[in-house]
Amino acid sequence: MTDTTIAGGPVERDPELPGLLLRTERDALVPLLRATASEGFAIRTRACPDWTVREVLAHCSAVLTRVVERRYEKDVFSPAANQRDIAERADWTDQQVVDELERGMTEAGPKIARAGGILDGIALGEWVHAGDVREALGEPGAYAGAGLPLALTLLARITREKGQVSLHADLDDRDEPLRFGEPDGQRPPARYIGDAPTLVRLYSGRPTDGAGFELAGVEAGELNIYA
Known about the structure:
Strand content: 5-15%
Low-confidence stretches: 1-5
Oligomer: single chain
Number of helices: 9
Radius of gyration: 17 Å
């Protein structure tokens, strides 16, 4: 697997990439959570202000457990289903939630790989939520770390498959621009200049807090893949 293809032509699906992203994030996030006091789990997240850190984690662990166990009810992944999943874990200890999350991040990859691409976005969403948690806990580099290159590769393919606005991203630590979205023949590519974590924030609808970046040819809200 390589992420260099996102600088040029179509991004082919690497079925192993979502699982690799999950395991990479597991190795970074779980030790942090094991060392977090109960007060940390009660902090509200900015990205999901209705949810605490614990509730975000319960949502993430429930989603991955559904993937591992292949349990997909009619309204699966809907807001109502997400709230039910969180409520079902209300009596669990914080570490039981972390246990389930660790298992899901370890075991979901092969199931996602065999699904043909329809579940790939779950891995990206889990990684973004991990950033939400790190931010709430005051950790630096919330949407960065070892998983960032993998997340960018997955994001590039997802934005093209969704037919989003074509965008050329000149990232601070890259020699060549990366391409996201899909050209439509009518609108020139938009342009982003800045760092990769801020670009992830824009594509996931997270606060940018006045980060230094330039965006031309597209409104920030148009980039949000979760809108």
